[in-house]
Write a structure and sequence with these properties.
403 residues, single chain, 0% strand
Amino acid sequence: MSTDQMRPSTGDTTAATPMNTVPGTAAATAASTAADAAAPAPDLVTRAFTFLTERPVSLHAASVLRIGYGLLYLVFLLREFPNRDEMWGPGSPWTPSLARELQRQTGWHSILTLSDSTAYFQTCYSLALVTAALFMLGWHTRAISILFAIVVASFHSRYLFMTDGGDNLTVLMVMYLTLTDCGRRWSLDARRRRLHTFSPVRRPPVTARTGPLPVGQQAVLVRRLLATLLHNCGMFVIAAQVCILYGAAGLYKVQGSMWRDGTAMHYVLNLDLFQPWPALSHLADSHQVCAAIAGYVTVLVQVAFPFALFSRLKYVLLGALLSMHVAIAVLLGLPEFSGAMIVADAVFLPDRLLTRFVSGRRRARLDSTSESARALQQVPAGVRSEESPTPRTSAPLTAPHRV
Protein backbone atom coordinates (compact mmCIF):
# COMPACT_ATOMS: atom_id res chain seq x y z
CA MET A 1 0.00 0.00 0.00
CA SER A 2 1.35 3.45 -0.94
CA THR A 3 1.83 6.31 1.43
CA ASP A 4 -0.98 8.27 -0.25
CA GLN A 5 -3.41 5.53 0.61
CA MET A 6 -2.21 5.50 4.21
CA ARG A 7 -2.57 9.29 4.54
CA PRO A 8 -5.80 10.21 6.37
CA SER A 9 -8.47 11.97 4.37
CA THR A 10 -9.72 15.40 5.19
CA GLY A 11 -13.24 14.20 5.74
CA ASP A 12 -12.64 11.49 8.43
CA THR A 13 -9.25 11.53 10.09
CA THR A 14 -9.98 8.88 12.74
CA ALA A 15 -11.18 6.24 10.33
CA ALA A 16 -8.04 6.38 8.19
CA THR A 17 -5.58 6.36 11.12
CA PRO A 18 -3.20 3.36 10.90
CA MET A 19 -3.50 0.63 13.53
CA ASN A 20 0.10 0.98 14.71
CA THR A 21 -0.30 4.66 15.67
CA VAL A 22 1.11 5.56 19.05
CA PRO A 23 -1.68 6.12 21.54
CA GLY A 24 -2.33 9.78 22.18
CA THR A 25 -0.91 11.00 18.86
CA ALA A 26 -4.34 11.60 17.34
CA ALA A 27 -5.46 13.47 20.43
CA ALA A 28 -2.31 15.63 20.38
CA THR A 29 -2.79 16.41 16.69
CA ALA A 30 -6.43 17.36 17.26
CA ALA A 31 -5.43 19.54 20.20
CA SER A 32 -2.75 21.37 18.16
CA THR A 33 -5.21 21.88 15.31
CA ALA A 34 -7.77 23.32 17.69
CA ALA A 35 -5.13 25.60 19.19
CA ASP A 36 -4.13 26.87 15.74
CA ALA A 37 -7.76 27.51 14.88
CA ALA A 38 -8.29 29.36 18.14
CA ALA A 39 -5.16 31.53 17.61
CA PRO A 40 -5.98 35.12 16.73
CA ALA A 41 -5.70 36.08 13.06
CA PRO A 42 -2.80 38.39 12.17
CA ASP A 43 -3.62 42.05 12.06
CA LEU A 44 -3.61 44.17 8.93
CA VAL A 45 -0.05 45.42 9.39
CA THR A 46 1.31 41.88 9.79
CA ARG A 47 -0.52 40.66 6.71
CA ALA A 48 0.70 43.65 4.67
CA PHE A 49 4.30 43.09 5.78
CA THR A 50 4.02 39.39 4.96
CA PHE A 51 2.64 40.19 1.51
CA LEU A 52 5.43 42.69 0.82
CA THR A 53 8.24 40.39 1.96
CA GLU A 54 6.96 36.96 0.96
CA ARG A 55 7.80 37.03 -2.76
CA PRO A 56 8.52 39.67 -5.41
CA VAL A 57 5.55 40.62 -7.57
CA SER A 58 5.38 41.52 -11.26
CA LEU A 59 8.95 40.55 -12.13
CA HIS A 60 8.18 40.33 -15.85
CA ALA A 61 6.37 43.68 -15.81
CA ALA A 62 9.42 45.26 -14.15
CA SER A 63 11.57 43.81 -16.92
CA VAL A 64 9.26 45.32 -19.52
CA LEU A 65 9.66 48.71 -17.84
CA ARG A 66 13.44 48.31 -17.83
CA ILE A 67 13.60 47.33 -21.50
CA GLY A 68 11.10 50.00 -22.52
CA TYR A 69 12.69 52.97 -20.81
CA GLY A 70 16.21 51.86 -21.68
CA LEU A 71 15.27 51.52 -25.34
CA LEU A 72 13.37 54.82 -25.40
CA TYR A 73 16.25 56.77 -23.93
CA LEU A 74 18.83 55.05 -26.12
CA VAL A 75 16.85 55.93 -29.24
CA PHE A 76 16.41 59.48 -27.94
CA LEU A 77 20.15 59.96 -27.41
CA LEU A 78 20.97 58.46 -30.80
CA ARG A 79 18.42 60.67 -32.54
CA GLU A 80 19.82 63.80 -30.90
CA PHE A 81 23.44 62.78 -31.46
CA PRO A 82 24.04 65.37 -34.26
CA ASN A 83 22.54 68.13 -32.05
CA ARG A 84 24.07 67.08 -28.76
CA ASP A 85 26.42 70.06 -28.39
CA GLU A 86 23.70 72.62 -29.15
CA MET A 87 21.30 71.01 -26.66
CA TRP A 88 23.43 69.97 -23.68
CA GLY A 89 27.05 70.77 -24.51
CA PRO A 90 29.25 73.84 -24.03
CA GLY A 91 27.98 75.25 -27.34
CA SER A 92 24.38 75.40 -26.13
CA PRO A 93 22.65 78.81 -25.89
CA TRP A 94 21.81 77.77 -22.34
CA THR A 95 25.44 77.77 -21.20
CA PRO A 96 26.74 75.59 -18.37
CA SER A 97 27.14 78.67 -16.15
CA LEU A 98 23.47 79.59 -16.61
CA ALA A 99 22.48 75.98 -15.94
CA ARG A 100 24.51 75.94 -12.72
CA GLU A 101 22.86 79.15 -11.58
CA LEU A 102 19.39 77.73 -12.20
CA GLN A 103 20.31 74.46 -10.48
CA ARG A 104 21.32 76.36 -7.35
CA GLN A 105 17.81 77.80 -7.28
CA THR A 106 15.88 74.63 -8.13
CA GLY A 107 17.99 72.08 -6.26
CA TRP A 108 18.75 69.96 -9.32
CA HIS A 109 22.18 68.51 -10.05
CA SER A 110 23.83 67.40 -13.28
CA ILE A 111 27.11 65.73 -14.11
CA LEU A 112 27.14 67.66 -17.39
CA THR A 113 27.75 70.98 -15.64
CA LEU A 114 30.79 69.83 -13.67
CA SER A 115 33.08 71.03 -16.44
CA ASP A 116 32.88 73.31 -19.47
CA SER A 117 35.27 71.13 -21.47
CA THR A 118 34.08 69.75 -24.79
CA ALA A 119 36.04 66.53 -24.28
CA TYR A 120 34.36 66.01 -20.91
CA PHE A 121 30.91 66.45 -22.46
CA GLN A 122 31.68 64.02 -25.31
CA THR A 123 32.86 61.46 -22.76
CA CYS A 124 29.69 61.88 -20.70
CA TYR A 125 27.51 61.50 -23.78
CA SER A 126 29.31 58.30 -24.83
CA LEU A 127 28.97 56.89 -21.33
CA ALA A 128 25.26 57.79 -21.36
CA LEU A 129 24.78 55.77 -24.56
CA VAL A 130 26.59 52.78 -23.07
CA THR A 131 24.65 53.05 -19.80
CA ALA A 132 21.28 53.13 -21.59
CA ALA A 133 22.21 50.08 -23.68
CA LEU A 134 23.42 48.11 -20.64
CA PHE A 135 20.32 49.03 -18.66
CA MET A 136 18.10 47.85 -21.50
CA LEU A 137 20.00 44.55 -21.73
CA GLY A 138 20.01 44.05 -17.95
CA TRP A 139 23.74 43.75 -17.28
CA HIS A 140 24.50 44.11 -13.54
CA THR A 141 21.15 45.82 -13.27
CA ARG A 142 21.39 46.88 -9.62
CA ALA A 143 24.40 49.12 -10.26
CA ILE A 144 23.53 50.13 -13.82
CA SER A 145 20.02 51.23 -12.80
CA ILE A 146 21.51 53.78 -10.41
CA LEU A 147 23.90 55.05 -13.09
CA PHE A 148 21.05 55.23 -15.59
CA ALA A 149 18.94 57.28 -13.16
CA ILE A 150 21.86 59.69 -12.68
CA VAL A 151 22.26 60.00 -16.46
CA VAL A 152 18.56 60.69 -17.08
CA ALA A 153 18.33 63.21 -14.25
CA SER A 154 21.51 64.95 -15.43
CA PHE A 155 20.30 65.40 -19.00
CA HIS A 156 16.89 66.47 -17.70
CA SER A 157 18.24 69.16 -15.39
CA ARG A 158 20.82 70.41 -17.90
CA TYR A 159 18.13 72.10 -19.98
CA LEU A 160 14.82 72.16 -18.13
CA PHE A 161 13.18 74.43 -20.67
CA MET A 162 13.22 71.73 -23.36
CA THR A 163 11.51 69.07 -21.27
CA ASP A 164 7.85 68.02 -21.34
CA GLY A 165 5.56 65.67 -19.46
CA GLY A 166 7.12 62.59 -21.01
CA ASP A 167 10.58 63.61 -19.76
CA ASN A 168 9.22 64.22 -16.26
CA LEU A 169 7.59 60.80 -16.23
CA THR A 170 10.76 59.12 -17.47
CA VAL A 171 12.81 60.70 -14.68
CA LEU A 172 10.34 59.50 -12.06
CA MET A 173 10.10 55.98 -13.47
CA VAL A 174 13.85 55.37 -13.75
CA MET A 175 14.25 56.55 -10.16
CA TYR A 176 11.56 54.14 -9.00
CA LEU A 177 13.15 51.32 -11.01
CA THR A 178 16.31 51.60 -8.91
CA LEU A 179 14.29 50.08 -6.06
CA THR A 180 12.99 47.15 -8.10
CA ASP A 181 14.62 43.90 -9.13
CA CYS A 182 13.99 44.66 -12.79
CA GLY A 183 16.87 42.46 -13.95
CA ARG A 184 15.46 39.18 -12.59
CA ARG A 185 13.76 38.27 -15.87
CA TRP A 186 14.62 38.73 -19.56
CA SER A 187 18.09 40.11 -18.92
CA LEU A 188 21.75 39.20 -19.12
CA ASP A 189 21.72 38.84 -15.34
CA ALA A 190 18.96 36.23 -15.59
CA ARG A 191 20.90 34.37 -18.29
CA ARG A 192 24.09 34.38 -16.21
CA ARG A 193 22.17 33.21 -13.14
CA ARG A 194 20.53 30.43 -15.15
CA LEU A 195 23.86 29.23 -16.54
CA HIS A 196 25.38 29.31 -13.07
CA THR A 197 22.48 27.29 -11.67
CA PHE A 198 22.82 24.52 -14.27
CA SER A 199 26.62 24.53 -14.32
CA PRO A 200 28.17 21.20 -13.22
CA VAL A 201 29.70 22.60 -10.04
CA ARG A 202 29.97 20.23 -7.10
CA ARG A 203 28.24 21.77 -4.15
CA PRO A 204 28.45 20.49 -0.60
CA PRO A 205 25.48 18.35 0.44
CA VAL A 206 22.73 20.03 2.40
CA THR A 207 22.52 18.60 5.87
CA ALA A 208 20.01 19.14 8.63
CA ARG A 209 21.23 21.80 11.02
CA THR A 210 20.08 22.44 14.53
CA GLY A 211 20.51 25.72 16.28
CA PRO A 212 20.89 29.21 14.85
CA LEU A 213 21.98 29.76 11.28
CA PRO A 214 25.49 31.00 10.54
CA VAL A 215 26.00 34.72 10.19
CA GLY A 216 26.57 34.42 6.44
CA GLN A 217 23.26 32.65 5.83
CA GLN A 218 21.43 35.12 8.06
CA ALA A 219 22.91 38.00 6.06
CA VAL A 220 21.75 36.36 2.82
CA LEU A 221 18.22 35.94 4.17
CA VAL A 222 18.07 39.54 5.39
CA ARG A 223 19.39 40.81 2.05
CA ARG A 224 16.78 38.75 0.19
CA LEU A 225 14.00 40.04 2.43
CA LEU A 226 15.04 43.67 1.97
CA ALA A 227 15.38 43.22 -1.79
CA THR A 228 11.88 41.76 -1.99
CA LEU A 229 10.48 44.55 0.19
CA LEU A 230 12.10 47.28 -1.91
CA HIS A 231 10.99 45.65 -5.17
CA ASN A 232 7.37 45.34 -4.12
CA CYS A 233 7.27 48.88 -2.72
CA GLY A 234 8.84 50.21 -5.92
CA MET A 235 6.30 48.47 -8.13
CA PHE A 236 3.41 49.72 -6.00
CA VAL A 237 4.78 53.27 -6.14
CA ILE A 238 5.01 53.04 -9.95
CA ALA A 239 1.41 51.82 -10.16
CA ALA A 240 0.25 54.56 -7.80
CA GLN A 241 2.11 57.18 -9.83
CA VAL A 242 0.38 56.11 -13.05
CA CYS A 243 -3.03 56.09 -11.34
CA ILE A 244 -2.48 59.58 -9.92
CA LEU A 245 -1.35 60.80 -13.33
CA TYR A 246 -4.44 59.51 -15.13
CA GLY A 247 -6.83 60.55 -12.38
CA ALA A 248 -5.43 64.07 -12.13
CA ALA A 249 -5.39 64.50 -15.92
CA GLY A 250 -9.02 63.41 -16.18
CA LEU A 251 -10.19 65.65 -13.33
CA TYR A 252 -8.37 68.66 -14.77
CA LYS A 253 -10.04 68.03 -18.13
CA VAL A 254 -13.46 67.88 -16.50
CA GLN A 255 -12.93 71.39 -15.12
CA GLY A 256 -12.32 72.83 -18.59
CA SER A 257 -15.28 74.14 -20.56
CA MET A 258 -13.87 72.98 -23.90
CA TRP A 259 -13.69 69.37 -22.72
CA ARG A 260 -17.24 69.59 -21.38
CA ASP A 261 -18.75 70.92 -24.62
CA GLY A 262 -16.69 68.55 -26.82
CA THR A 263 -14.62 71.15 -28.70
CA ALA A 264 -11.24 70.46 -27.06
CA MET A 265 -10.08 68.06 -29.78
CA HIS A 266 -10.89 70.65 -32.45
CA TYR A 267 -8.60 73.24 -30.86
CA VAL A 268 -5.86 70.69 -30.17
CA LEU A 269 -5.79 69.49 -33.78
CA ASN A 270 -5.49 73.07 -35.05
CA LEU A 271 -2.43 74.07 -33.03
CA ASP A 272 0.47 74.78 -35.38
CA LEU A 273 2.98 73.61 -32.80
CA PHE A 274 1.44 70.10 -32.73
CA GLN A 275 0.89 69.46 -36.43
CA PRO A 276 3.61 67.18 -37.80
CA TRP A 277 1.27 66.31 -40.69
CA PRO A 278 -1.21 69.17 -41.21
CA ALA A 279 -3.22 67.26 -43.81
CA LEU A 280 -3.77 64.39 -41.37
CA SER A 281 -4.75 66.81 -38.60
CA HIS A 282 -7.27 68.56 -40.86
CA LEU A 283 -8.67 65.18 -41.93
CA ALA A 284 -9.21 64.15 -38.30
CA ASP A 285 -10.74 67.55 -37.50
CA SER A 286 -13.19 67.27 -40.40
CA HIS A 287 -15.08 64.52 -38.51
CA GLN A 288 -16.36 66.70 -35.70
CA VAL A 289 -18.70 64.14 -34.16
CA CYS A 290 -15.92 61.54 -33.93
CA ALA A 291 -13.58 64.17 -32.45
CA ALA A 292 -16.15 65.08 -29.79
CA ILE A 293 -16.73 61.41 -28.93
CA ALA A 294 -12.97 60.88 -28.69
CA GLY A 295 -12.71 63.78 -26.25
CA TYR A 296 -15.46 62.44 -24.00
CA VAL A 297 -14.03 58.91 -24.10
CA THR A 298 -10.59 60.24 -23.17
CA VAL A 299 -11.92 61.98 -20.06
CA LEU A 300 -14.06 58.99 -19.08
CA VAL A 301 -11.22 56.49 -19.44
CA GLN A 302 -8.73 58.59 -17.50
CA VAL A 303 -11.11 59.20 -14.60
CA ALA A 304 -12.35 55.60 -14.47
CA PHE A 305 -8.97 53.87 -14.79
CA PRO A 306 -7.86 54.10 -11.11
CA PHE A 307 -11.18 52.59 -10.02
CA ALA A 308 -11.01 49.65 -12.44
CA LEU A 309 -7.65 48.19 -11.43
CA PHE A 310 -9.13 45.18 -9.65
CA SER A 311 -11.58 44.17 -12.39
CA ARG A 312 -11.37 42.82 -15.91
CA LEU A 313 -12.47 46.21 -17.18
CA LYS A 314 -8.85 47.22 -16.63
CA TYR A 315 -7.77 45.51 -19.86
CA VAL A 316 -10.43 47.31 -21.89
CA LEU A 317 -9.29 50.66 -20.48
CA LEU A 318 -5.65 49.78 -21.13
CA GLY A 319 -6.54 49.12 -24.77
CA ALA A 320 -8.30 52.47 -24.99
CA LEU A 321 -5.31 54.23 -23.40
CA LEU A 322 -2.96 52.51 -25.84
CA SER A 323 -5.04 53.75 -28.77
CA MET A 324 -5.08 57.24 -27.27
CA HIS A 325 -1.29 57.37 -26.89
CA VAL A 326 -0.72 56.09 -30.42
CA ALA A 327 -3.03 58.83 -31.71
CA ILE A 328 -1.11 61.42 -29.69
CA ALA A 329 2.20 60.21 -31.13
CA VAL A 330 0.91 60.33 -34.72
CA LEU A 331 -1.40 63.36 -34.74
CA LEU A 332 0.40 65.63 -32.26
CA GLY A 333 3.99 64.56 -32.92
CA LEU A 334 4.81 63.52 -29.33
CA PRO A 335 6.36 60.05 -29.66
CA GLU A 336 8.55 60.33 -26.54
CA PHE A 337 5.60 61.22 -24.33
CA SER A 338 3.42 58.48 -25.81
CA GLY A 339 6.19 55.90 -25.53
CA ALA A 340 6.83 56.78 -21.89
CA MET A 341 3.12 56.44 -21.08
CA ILE A 342 2.73 53.14 -22.96
CA VAL A 343 5.71 51.65 -21.13
CA ALA A 344 4.36 52.86 -17.78
CA ASP A 345 1.01 51.17 -18.49
CA ALA A 346 2.83 47.81 -18.66
CA VAL A 347 3.06 47.79 -14.85
CA PHE A 348 -0.59 46.66 -14.75
CA LEU A 349 -0.07 43.62 -17.01
CA PRO A 350 0.11 40.32 -15.08
CA ASP A 351 3.17 38.13 -15.45
CA ARG A 352 1.19 35.17 -16.76
CA LEU A 353 -0.06 37.27 -19.68
CA LEU A 354 3.44 38.48 -20.55
CA THR A 355 4.97 35.01 -20.33
CA ARG A 356 2.12 33.55 -22.38
CA PHE A 357 2.68 36.18 -25.06
CA VAL A 358 6.42 35.53 -25.21
CA SER A 359 6.02 31.74 -25.18
CA GLY A 360 3.36 31.99 -27.90
CA ARG A 361 5.69 33.96 -30.16
CA ARG A 362 8.49 31.50 -29.48
CA ARG A 363 6.23 28.53 -30.21
CA ALA A 364 5.06 30.13 -33.47
CA ARG A 365 8.67 30.69 -34.52
CA LEU A 366 9.55 27.07 -33.73
CA ASP A 367 6.48 25.83 -35.63
CA SER A 368 7.44 27.85 -38.71
CA THR A 369 10.97 26.44 -38.56
CA SER A 370 9.69 22.87 -38.26
CA GLU A 371 7.26 23.38 -41.13
CA SER A 372 10.09 24.66 -43.35
CA ALA A 373 12.20 21.65 -42.48
CA ARG A 374 9.28 19.30 -43.15
CA ALA A 375 8.62 20.94 -46.50
CA LEU A 376 12.29 20.55 -47.42
CA GLN A 377 12.16 16.86 -46.58
CA GLN A 378 9.15 16.36 -48.86
CA VAL A 379 11.00 17.74 -51.91
CA PRO A 380 12.21 14.96 -54.25
CA ALA A 381 15.86 14.08 -54.05
CA GLY A 382 16.69 15.24 -57.57
CA VAL A 383 15.00 18.62 -57.15
CA ARG A 384 16.58 19.06 -53.74
CA SER A 385 20.04 18.42 -55.12
CA GLU A 386 19.55 21.01 -57.86
CA GLU A 387 17.74 23.80 -56.02
CA SER A 388 18.90 23.39 -52.44
CA PRO A 389 21.96 21.20 -52.39
CA THR A 390 22.85 19.67 -49.09
CA PRO A 391 26.37 20.01 -47.81
CA ARG A 392 28.65 17.08 -48.38
CA THR A 393 29.49 14.94 -45.43
CA SER A 394 33.15 15.06 -44.73
CA ALA A 395 35.21 12.26 -43.32
CA PRO A 396 35.29 11.94 -39.54
CA LEU A 397 37.84 14.14 -37.94
CA THR A 398 40.77 12.41 -36.41
CA ALA A 399 43.18 13.59 -33.80
CA PRO A 400 46.13 15.46 -35.34
CA HIS A 401 49.50 13.71 -35.35
CA ARG A 402 51.95 15.12 -32.95
CA VAL A 403 55.25 16.23 -34.41
